[in-house]
Task: inverse folding
């Protein structure tokens, strides 16, 4: 930014009389901007008038009224209730939620795989290092759409039919129809269990805060993790025992050629999330590697001379410092993953681009409104993620005097 | 001094002893293996697991692609056996479609000529010692796209018209990639300069443009170009589908390119700007003679990364029904003549090798250029 002061010569101070108006940078700048503004305004005007005449001549309705009209198509995965006569507004909501679901699961998975591969690429073991390099080069150099198609075919071809599905505890079934899991059915008093979970989380946070305070003052450590796990599992368990276990599970059952009951995770979701995680993890691995290499070796040596073993050294000394380098590019990878979830349209997973910018646009023909809404949704997700990650970045940033 | 003081002492050596070889345990492949593969029980275990995994993957690939592969055949019958690997006759039968799409067979010399011209122009551009760099660059970045367009489209010089609607396969992949690359770099430079400008309207317009395109996925941009752009243009002005997609891809890539170039501009020290102004250069000459040559050199890896991203993104045009390599491949899968359990994996293996070859090649080349251009300014 400071450079800009350097490139803004201001000869108008002092002997402005000797510079002709044509050569005065201020006048030139003003005229240049005026021309730009006029061009932008004219282009916008032409676009708007053209759009008006085109819409009128093609008989396309305008406005957002279509959001209240019933959408007469079905959606094969929805986090909220969706019926045949739901509105297009409901379709939009289902799409946004499905996009967020892919983004959330994908980000968690990609981060785990990416950190593992990134650390593997720095391993002293040649074999581990080589495998990491192969992973990164292969995943980064193949188009994400290609990888989605590939994993989708693998999933469809190598999954058994529902009759021979893999099962776990006779409750989880995996077949080419997707993954069937028991779903939770809430009975009377279940609200208290939900409440107790919230209370347990709050208590765990309080314990963590207290333990940190105490460690800073006295140096004594407290087993926060085990306490938190005990609280979050134990408290709801006790509460549900008091209310006579009001939670039941709807276990899927094989009936005829398909399963009945339970929750279904469709194969499109698995293929999409898996492919995007694998793809993004390759980039995250490189970011993690660069971040760890940016931590000076003296830090590792100092940790070693204090008696820390390699594991705690990595966890307590290297990674916290590497995070400062890692966070900004990691944010853009998270955003890329979220935006790439729009590739779902190719395998038919019902997220916003597929069912709103695709099906809804085809049925209503209101291209301008539909695409504008879709773009706004993505822009909002992008901005919110950046704000959150910038906040986190400021928290972990190096505080220098 | 010592030599001259005691010249005739027989027990003092006057020559160096021959150096002994290093101990066996410290040099050679065995020592390397011990240090890098078996430095402890956990590492040994990891090495064995890793080796097993790598050997399994490599053998499975070799087995599927070569050992069990079918090499000759006329239709699906050849690839229907129980233990059959890759079905290469499928690729052979569909090769024309995968490379040219539905481009008429009699006219396929035109895309071939375009490929050849491109190769002839790009190879000397990439070799450092080849002469006439500037003329070569102008030919490739300005003349070649125009010539290639008229050659492919036809309708001039007695060449029959081949509508872009029937172009396809690798031809479309390369057309989208080259147009995107050629258009996005200058547009990106202009946007980056606009974002760094001190004129508020220009800066604001550039920021709005860049952040908008970077905030939305390419698919919505392609939807925008396909469904929304025609509404904004006067009636009668018909763009064909490929051109609309090209506009979308170029604008999208330009926004990313602008951010890469901006990074380079920010890395140029202020003294360079002041020095340029001190010798009386105006804005454009300062930028094109002093700042941009240094800034672009700094960000070559970033520019090539954007190119690689663009190349991978060309696959997305299949969603707006422009059949590039991946699109033609999926169209070919639908052919019942070749419907076998291995057809899809064969097709994806072929496409995978194609994309990997180009993307990996570009990244290797960028690393080579980076090393070569490293003129010692870095710490």
Result:
């Amino acid at each position: 930014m400071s450079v800009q002061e350097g490139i803004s010569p201001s000869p108008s101070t002092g002997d402005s009389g000797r510079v002709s108006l044509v050569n005065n940078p201020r006048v030139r700048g003003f005229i240049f901007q005026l021309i730009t503004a006029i061009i932008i305004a004219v282009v916008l005007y032409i676009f708007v008038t053209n759009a008006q005449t085109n819409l009128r001549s093609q008989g396309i309705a305008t406005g957002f009224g279509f959001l209240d009209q019933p959408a007469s198509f079905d959606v094969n995965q929805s986090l909220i209730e969706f019926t045949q006569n739901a509105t297009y507004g409901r379709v939009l909501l289902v799409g946004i939620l499905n996009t967020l679901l892919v983004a959330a699961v994908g980000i968690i998975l990609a981060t785990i795989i990416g950190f593992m591969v990134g650390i593997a690429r720095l391993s002293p073991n040649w074999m581990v290092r080589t495998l990491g390099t192969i992973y990164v080069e292969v995943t980064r150099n193949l188009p994400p759409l290609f990888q989605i198609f590939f994993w989708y075919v693998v999933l469809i071809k190598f999954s058994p039919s529902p009759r021979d599905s893999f099962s776990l505890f006779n409750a989880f079934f995996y077949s080419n129809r997707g993954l069937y899991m028991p779903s939770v059915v809430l009975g009377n008093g279940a609200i208290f269990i939900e409440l107790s979970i919230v209370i347990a989380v709050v208590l765990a946070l309080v314990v963590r805060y207290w333990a940190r305070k105490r460690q800073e003052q006295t140096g004594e450590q407290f087993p926060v993790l085990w306490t938190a796990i005990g609280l979050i599992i134990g408290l709801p368990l006790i509460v549900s025992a008091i209310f006579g276990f009001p939670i039941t599970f709807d276990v899927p059952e094989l009936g005829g050629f398909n399963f009945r009951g339970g929750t279904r995770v469709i194969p499109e979701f698995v293929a999409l999330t898996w492919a995007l995680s694998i793809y993004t993890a390759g980039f995250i691995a490189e970011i993690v590697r660069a971040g760890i290499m940016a931590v000076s070796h003296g830090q590792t040596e100092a940790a070693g001379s204090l008696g820390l073993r390699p594991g705690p050294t990595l966890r307590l000394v290297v990674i916290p410092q590497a995070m400062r380098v890692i966070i900004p590019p990691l944010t853009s990878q998270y955003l890329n993953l979220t935006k790439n979830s729009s590739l779902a349209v190719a395998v038919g997973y019902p997220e916003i681009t597929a069912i709103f910018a695709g099906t809804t646009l085809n049925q209503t023909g209101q291209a301008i409104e539909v695409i504008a809404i879709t773009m706004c949704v993505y822009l909002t997700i992008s901005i919110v993620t950046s704000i959150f990650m910038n906040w986190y970045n400021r928290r972990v940033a190096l505080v220098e005097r | 001094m010592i030599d001259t003081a005691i010249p005739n002492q027989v027990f003092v050596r006057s020559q160096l002893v021959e150096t002994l070889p290093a101990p066996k345990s410290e040099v050679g492949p065995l020592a390397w293996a011990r240090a890098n593969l078996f430095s402890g029980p956990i590492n040994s275990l990891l090495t064995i697991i890793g080796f097993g995994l790598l050997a399994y993957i490599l053998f499975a690939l070799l087995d599927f692609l070569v050992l069990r592969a079918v090499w000759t055949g006329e239709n699906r019958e050849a690839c229907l056996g129980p233990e059959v690997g890759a079905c290469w006759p499928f690729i052979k039968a569909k090769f024309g479609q995968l490379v040219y799409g539905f481009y008429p067979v009699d006219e396929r010399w035109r895309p071939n000529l375009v490929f050849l011209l491109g190769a002839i122009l790009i190879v000397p551009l990439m070799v450092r010692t080849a002469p006439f760099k500037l003329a070569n660059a102008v030919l490739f970045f300005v003349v070649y796209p125009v010539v290639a367009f008229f050659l492919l489209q036809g309708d001039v010089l007695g060449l029959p018209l081949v509508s872009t609607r029937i172009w396809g396969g690798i031809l479309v992949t390369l057309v989208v990639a080259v147009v995107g690359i050629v258009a996005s770099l200058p547009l990106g430079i202009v946007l980056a300069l606009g974002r760094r400008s001190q004129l508020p309207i220009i800066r604001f317009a550039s920021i709005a443009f860049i952040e908008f395109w970077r905030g939305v996925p390419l698919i919505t941009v392609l939807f925008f170009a396909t469904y929304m752009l025609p509404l904004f243009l006067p009636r009668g002005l018909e763009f064909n589908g490929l051109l609309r997609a090209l506009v979308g891809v170029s604008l999208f890539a330009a926004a990313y390119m602008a951010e890469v170039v901006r990074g380079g501009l920010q890395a140029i020290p202020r003294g360079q700007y002041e020095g340029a102004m001190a010798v009386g250069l105006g804005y454009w000459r300062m930028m094109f003679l002093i700042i941009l040559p240094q800034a672009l050199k700094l960000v070559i890896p970033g520019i090539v990364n954007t190119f690689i991203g663009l190349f991978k993104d060309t696959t997305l045009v299949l969603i707006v029904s422009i059949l590039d390599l991946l699109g033609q491949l999926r169209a070919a899968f639908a052919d019942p003549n070749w419907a076998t359990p291995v057809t899809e994996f064969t097709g994806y293996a072929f496409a995978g090798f194609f994309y990997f070859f180009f993307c990996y090649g570009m990244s290797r080349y960028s690393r080579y250029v980076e090393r070569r251009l490293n003129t010692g300014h870095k710490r």
About this structure: Residues 214 and 255 of chain B are 6 Å apart (CA to CA). The radius of gyration of chain B is 29 Å. Chain B is about 70% helix and 0% strand.
